[in-house]
Design goal:
Number of helices: 10
Helix content: 25-40%
Strand order of the largest sheet: 2-1-5-10-9-6-7-8
Largest sheet: 8 strands, parallel
Strand content: 5-15%
Shape: globular
Bound molecules: zinc ion
Structural class: alpha/beta
Number of strands: 10
């Protein structure tokens, strides 16, 4: 598959206070990952800056002014979301990378595009910074794809945290399906199976809440019984992955137990859907992931799944029996039985 990476060393310039998990060293992991794939012949491009119009499709004008006002300043926006003087420009590049990835995937010049960005985006609400996030990169990407003519866009979020911002922005929109696997109950508190969207968007929010301790087997069940069948029925024109790697077993924040191979398997399962529905059009945007080694290994597994030959997902086996996936699947099926057929 024709694959592109979007990368900039400038993502290290967004500073957070000492001890903050979303730290500049994460961008050094992106540098190493980009360099590894450049050596293997993958094209790497620098992102452009997102425009006011692109941001304004998902964020309020007043909120955009608030973030622009942090330019050149260190500001605390929420109990765990901070800017440094460079953050405004870096966040504009992150959102711009998401837009660029969509344009590349839709234009057919590349079919899969991976944007290695920070700060993450999926907690950012229409008018509020939250959970390390300034602009909601995945939402900006989905809205840009719609503006470019995509009829249906799926956002699949496998970060350990629920993407409250992305869910809320498209709550009432049947053209953007939001599907999330996440630890539950956990920060930010949203993401119950019963949250299925509002109004005309009812049924187009799909939450798979997993108890702490969930393993690759639980994710596999969630994907095979719910995620893949729902995505096939939705038939997206573009599949966007909110790729958080804090569901890794070594992550200091999360309590789920995936390995890098598990991220590779999820990505391959999603690539298979994209091959069937939309000629393999996949956009990957990084979200969380706070153990640097786990972040590197999981990102490489994701890129490998998109770059290597198309194959059935190779789900790792932990050898441990768990009923956590079955519970999540039962709850999700009960909430969405009227809208989708399940596997
Ligand atoms: Zn997260």
């Amino acid at each position: 598959m024709s694959l592109l990476l979007i990368h900039s060393e400038r993502f290290a310039e967004h500073q957070t206070p000492p001890g903050h998990p979303e730290r500049p060293e994460r961008a050094e992991v992106f540098d190493a990952v980009a360099s590894r794939w450049r050596d293997r012949g993958i094209e790497i491009v620098a992102p452009r800056t997102a425009t006011r119009e692109q941001l304004g499709r998902v964020h309020d004008a007043e909120y955009l002014r608030t973030i622009a006002d942090t330019n050149g300043r260190s500001v605390r926006l929420d109990p765990d979301t901070y800017t440094s003087p460079e953050s405004y420009e870096v966040a504009l590049l992150g959102a711009g990378a998401a837009v660029d990835a969509v344009e590349r995937a839709l234009s057919g010049s590349q079919r899969a595009a991976v944007a290695l960005v920070r700060p993450p985006g999926h907690h950012a609400e229409r008018s509020r910074a939250m959970g390390f996030c300034l602009y909601n990169n995945a939402a900006i990407a989905a809205a840009h794809a719609r503006a470019q003519g995509a009829r249906r866009v799926a956002v699949v979020d496998y970060d350990v945290h629920h993407g409250n911002g992305t869910q809320h922005i498209f709550d009432a929109d049947a053209h953007v399906l939001y599907l999330s696997t996440h630890q539950f109950p956990f920060y930010p508190g949203t993401g119950a199976a019963t949250e299925i969207g509002h109004g005309g968007g009812q049924g187009f929010t799909v939450n798979l809440p997993l108890e702490a301790g969930s393993l690759a087997e639980d994710f596999r069940m969630a994907f095979e019984v719910v995620a893949v069948p729902v995505l096939r029925q939705f038939e997206p024109d573009l599949l966007i992955i909110s790729a958080g790697y804090d569901a890794h077993e070594h992550d200091p924040l999360g309590g789920l137990r995936l390995t890098a191979d598990g991220f590779g398997a999820m990505t391959m399962a999603l690539r298979q859907v994209a091959e069937q529905c939309c000629r393999g059009r996949v956009v990957v945007l990084t979200e969380g992931g706070y153990d640097l080694k786990a972040l590197a290994a999981s990102l490489n597994a994701t890129i490998e799944a998109l770059h290597g030959p198309l194959a059935p997902p190779a789900w790792p086996s932990s050898g441990i029996t768990s009923n956590r996936g079955a519970q999540a699947v039962r709850d999700t099926q009960a909430a969405l039985r009227a809208y989708w057929h399940f596997g």
